[in-house]
């Protein structure tokens, strides 16, 4: 009685494993046939052969260089290019020589070519650079650095201004600063002061015209004063004297001109 039950249990185990092996073999056969069928029909796995070329679905890894005329994502989906080191885009000419290159890596983005252009969505030129010049086509160029903009050579522009309620400083710490224009240089401070400071001489020169000082009050501070009048009375009114070399000094006013008394200041 017990021997019959043990024999039935062994036979059932053998039958179970036999059916399991048969199902596995059918599964692998079906999987192989399905992939082979897909390869024969229109591609292999996620790779499809269409009228426009190859269509690849999912993530893909290329171990060797990929040569293609055009690479685009599915409409409405982004295109990702990912690399553990860098992504390089090289443009070659007919002689297989490198003419343009774009490298995006861990140290930044590097571009190499004869010219670089950046345009807006409307086609307006915003920025371009080549060996001869750099052009900024935007309506405004804003420099946000604390030290401002540093130019090693000359700068040509029709308009320089600061932001509203901000100061505008034109400075050359170790050399000279020149502002030239064939039709004139205009400096305006509509809501503040204009200040020019130098360590040595400040010169205002007009070769063919004149220099006009137009203001309600004109102050000439720290002018040298001549000797007091012989009468000994201290005057609070002075006259401005001009030396032949253009130097100015003050002399106490009298009934007549007193500039001759202090003419030694012209030396």
From TrEMBL:
Where does the protein principally reside? membrane
Q: A single GO BP annotation from the record? A: cardiac muscle tissue development
Instruction: Give the signal peptide, or none.
Output: none
Segments passing through the bilayer? 6-23
Its record classes its membrane topology as: Single-pass type II membrane protein
Determine the domain of life of the protein's source.
Answer: Eukaryota
What protein name does the entry list?
Sarcoglycan, delta (dystrophin-associated glycoprotein)
For this protein, the record's PANTHER family field holds: DELTA-SARCOGLYCAN (PTHR12939:SF6), SARCOGLYCAN (PTHR12939)
Choose one Gene Ontology CC annotation of this protein and give it.
cytoskeleton
Check the record and name the InterPro entries matching this protein: Sarcoglycan (IPR006875), Sarcoglycan_gamma/delta/zeta (IPR039972)
Q: Where in the cell is it found?
A: Cell membrane, Sarcolemma; Cytoplasm, Cytoskeleton
- Write the record's keywords in alphabetical order, separated by commas: Cell membrane, Cytoplasm, Cytoskeleton, Disulfide bond, Glycoprotein, Membrane, Signal-anchor, Transmembrane, Transmembrane helix
Q: Belongs to which family? A: Belongs to the sarcoglycan beta/delta/gamma/zeta family.
């Amino acid at each position: 009685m017990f021997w019959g039950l043990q024999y039935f249990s062994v036979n059932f185990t053998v039958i179970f494993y036999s059916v399991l092996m048969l199902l596995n073999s059918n599964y692998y056969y079906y999987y192989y046939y399905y992939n082979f069928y897909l390869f024969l029909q229109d591609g292999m796995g996620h790779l499809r052969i269409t009228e426009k070329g190859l269509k690849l679905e999912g993530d893909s890894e290329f171990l060797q260089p990929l040569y293609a005329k055009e690479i685009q994502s599915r409409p409405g989906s982004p295109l990702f290019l990912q690399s553990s080191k860098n992504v390089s885009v090289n443009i070659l000419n007919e002689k297989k020589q490198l003419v343009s290159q774009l490298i995006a890596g861990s140290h930044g983005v590097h571009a190499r070519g004869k010219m670089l252009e950046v345009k807006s969505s409307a086609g307006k030129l915003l920025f371009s650079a080549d060996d001869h010049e750099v052009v900024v086509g935007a309506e405004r160029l804003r420099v946000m650095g604390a030290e401002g903009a540093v130019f090693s050579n000359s700068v040509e522009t029709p308009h320089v201004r600061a932001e509203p309620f901000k100061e505008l400083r034109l400075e050359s710490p170790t050399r000279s600063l020149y502002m030239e224009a064939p039709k004139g240089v205009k400096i305006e401070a509509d809501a503040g002061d204009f200040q020019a400071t130098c360590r040595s001489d400040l010169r205002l020169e007009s070769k063919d015209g004149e220099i006009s000082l137009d203001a309600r009050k004109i102050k000439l501070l720290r002018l040298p004063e001549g000797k007091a009048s012989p009468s000994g009375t201290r005057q609070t009114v002075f006259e401005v004297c001009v030396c032949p070399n253009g130097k100015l000094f003050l002399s106490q006013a009298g009934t007549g001109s007193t500039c001759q008394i202090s003419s030694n200041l012209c030396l």
